[in-house]
Amino acid sequence: MHGVRPGMNAPAPALDPLAQITERLRVAVQRRFGAQSAVDRIEVATLGGSNRTLLFDLVEGAARRRLVFRQETYRLPNSPFIPPQPQFRLLQIAQGHGVPVPTPVFEFEPEDELDRGYVVGYVAGETLPRRLLLDACFAPARAVFCAQAGEILGRLHSVDPAAAAFLATTPDSQDPLAAQLARLDYYGEAHPALELAVRWLERHRPAAPRRVLLHGDFRNGNMIMGPEGIRAVLDWECSHLGAPMEDLGWLCLRSWRFGHHDLPVAGMGLRAEFYAAYADASGYAVDPEEVRWWEIFGFIRWMVLNIMQAHGHWSGERRSPAFAACGRNTCLIEYELLMTLLGHYA
Questions:
Q1: What is the model's pLDDT at position 2?
Q2: What is the mean pLDDT of residues 63-73?
Q3: CA-closest candidate to residue 175, choices 203, 204, 211
Q4: pLDDT of residue 15
Q5: Alpha carbon distance 27, 24 (integer Å)
Q6: Largest CA distance in the chain
Q7: At what angle do helices 192-203 and 288-314 cross, to 10 degrees?
Q8: pTM of the predicted protein model
Q9: pLDDT over 90, % of the chain
């Protein structure tokens, strides 16, 4: 059974005071954009759990550009997140292949004294799933979501994986199921429902698929949307190389429907439309049974991520009411996993 805890966690990196970060950011901006450039209207973003996020204006004479500062704040053993440097490279790759992302502006360098992170362009819009699913102004976006999501994933999966060869050594690129179980062992929790699902996955593994560049966390909540649809895909810290159906199965996970269970694609649409759009964009037909395998896998992965966040709270490493609630969320995921395995949920 997976539940052996090998020891204490390493401490999380200390966060510098905001005033100190602001001054260092000002110097970093002037180093790149000239001594006359300035930083203005700094705002601390309230969303985002694995990075410190600040919004600010880059001022160059009469011109202003809204930008986003992203600084790594989670750096512990068995982290599921890749560092900022490969994330920045992935943004450049995705943008070059027509995938909508925030424009990459610059990475932090050692002389910036800002640790690990980068700056990207600001994209206006909404990310909160419940607003996207309930607000009438987003009805047009919901109507085109499946077509847009399928096209975006099709484009991403058409990228030559050699362009992202730097991801090949990550645990999720080598064996994603083994990677989840290693993380579960690290946190020392036993979950019989998860063990049952692992046995099912081991007995029903699909044939070795082609390997593609995966976003790794492609879902509502990680997309900026406007009334017309998807404007940008965010949060590339879970990217890796693997089976294309993994991204499709993750988006169809019941957890991202937020009560709209009759619409299995993120609570916004139907599988047939999503699969057709993906096939048109990628040139590859979708295997629904393989997608289901990755949905079962997705429950395990989502459960492990919630265990990680809850552990961060009760251990004192990253205290947050939202992280504390992840402990309760784990039980809900187990229930939905069992109901899906039994065929009661689709």
A1: 43
A2: 95
A3: 211
A4: 54
A5: 5
A6: 64
A7: 150
A8: 0.91
A9: 80
- Write down the residue that tokens 């987003």 correspond to: 138
Q: Map the chain to HEC letters.
A: CCCCCCCCCCCCCCCCCHHHHHHHHHHHHHHHHCCCCEEEEEEECCCCCCEEEEEEEEEECCEEEEEEEEEECCCCCCCCCCCHHHHHHHHHHHHHCCCCCCCEEEECCHHHCCCCEEEEECCCCECCHHHHHHCHHHHHHHHHHHHHHHHHHHHHHCCCHHHHHHHCCCHHHHCHHHHHHHHHHHHCCCCHHHHHHHHHHHHCCCCCCCCEEECCCCCCCCEEEECCEEEEECCCCCCEEECHHHHHHHHCCHHHCCCCCCCCECCCECHHHHHHHHHHHHCCCCCHHHHHHHHHHHHHHHHHHHHHHHHHHHCCCCCCHHHHHHHHHHHHHHHHHHHHHCCCCC
Strand bridging mode 223-226 / 117-121: unpaired
Tokens encoding 18: 């905001």
In the block, residue with structure tokens 């500062």: 69
Report whether pLDDT(6) > 60.
Answer: no
Query: With the C-alpha atoms ordered 74, 79, 83, 87, is the resulting torsion angle positive or negative?
Result: negative
**What pLDDT, on a 0 to 100 scale, did the predictor assign at position 47?**
56
- Rounded-to-integer distance, Cα 222 and Cα 253, Å: 14
DSSP strand pairing (51-60 vs 63-72)? antiparallel
pLDDT of 5 above 60: no
- Residue 321 token pair: 């009411």
Residue linked to tokens 């060869």: 165
Q: Alpha-carbon Rg of the chain, whole angstroms?
A: 20
pLDDT, tens digit, 9 for 90 and up, residues 15-53:
568 889 999 999 999 999 999 999 999 999 865 556 789
d(CA 57, CA 53): 14
